[in-house]
Structure prediction request, 509 residues.
Amino acid sequence: MGFDLSEFIQRNRLQVIEEWTDRLHQEVGEQYSRRPREELAGTVTEAFDANAHVLLHDDFGPINRFIDKVTRMRLEAGFLLSDVQKAFELFRTIVLPRLAGVASVGDFQNEISKINHCLAYTIHRFSDLFQNMHEKEIREHAQRLGEEVKERTVELKESELKYKILVEEINDGYFVIQNETIVFANKAFCQMHGYRINEVRGQKFYRFIAPENRQKVTQIYTDSLNKRRTHPIFEYSRLTKDGRRFPTEIMAKVIRYENQLSNIGICRDITKRVEMEQRIMEAERMAYIGQITTSLSHEIRNPLSAVKMNIQILKKNPQLQGNDQRRVEISIKEVLRLERILTELLDFAKPLQFEFKPCYVNKILFSCEELLEMKFKEKGLSTFFSLAPELPKMMADEEKLEQAFINLLLNTIEACREKGEILVASRSCLQDGKPVVEVTVEDDGPGIPRKHLSDIFKPFFTTRSNGTGLGLANTRRIVEAHGGWIKAKNRDPYGASFHIYFPSGGSHV
Prediction:
């Protein structure tokens, strides 16, 4: 039986309204926290039912009436535009986790598309209406003070300043284009692209669009201007100052700005939304792979054990000499390799279970050195450990961290040349202003091909003929389960380095 959105909405209605009201009262802003909870509950109930009407019947009538009502309420009460946008956004934040828990991947993607469309329409319509109503207030105010020119001028300037503050306060990027050139951009637009305001104004708009999307976006804005109409929201990749690309949604609208027909755009970063969708899809895919892997591993392990036992018995036969004895040894070695691969697959397929307790990272690293000592010697590798003393204790699963470090070191051993060098270091430092413990592993191998840097932590990705592609994937999984993160980069002139970061002070538990 397929997913029933109507049943989902009816079943979750009261819980979503209650959580939405609580978070609106506690998280969004001072103005919301001052309002009576009963009033907020009534407003949230209307918003939920209007959104449900859009999702179930594709009817925007109730949401339009609600926007008209709430815009007047919030404008009269002096609410910030950004706070009201956050209030609308809470619907998606609360509903999506509940939806992900009950819907299939296909149904989830279909329903999230509807929710995104509904919220984008609501927020953009509210922003336009808020702006238009505010401009209307300015005009009416100017007309009422028609004979008092000096006072009208002062109040008009105050209104213009208030309007600019509102534009600067919104979380979305807001900009104006004339002849493909940006003549105005708010602070959010500049921050989204990594520029200062004076670096944005006067530049061609296409400079801030990824090359593969430039023709599409500029054509939409040209058509919008020529036909003098608003273009529906669409997605593209924006280009930042340092060359990175991020998923963004944008709307094109035509207005008169400084007595000239102009395009305005409102763009919103959707990186977190896209990442969340990808994580949910990846979780579904890995759950399915895990089921298949577990089933196949059990089916293969029993006959493989019988094969190994019989080959080991055959190896003891004194009649086997020369090449025959060598072939049996190769067969045993390959069977052992298959067993190791099966073990890695099963470790990856089963859910991780942790037993957190205070431990020292340096102690775990020394233990890994002892366990892999023979591996280092087999390849003639020199290992250097530069571990900072007095690192803070971590709440962690010592056994799991040891597994993660061993997987990483085994990968490094494979990458090193004969008689190469490996450096393992630890230290305390700051990342984004927060204290972390950093573990670094460096080698002097050939490095990682640039095209593979973004793939090496993906499950089953490998460039080796005898690899499973699960070692680094398991390392990342364990590190992230401890609240940390791992990244890889190439060294200059050769070699690769891996950097693992754990939050200090037990904040990862």
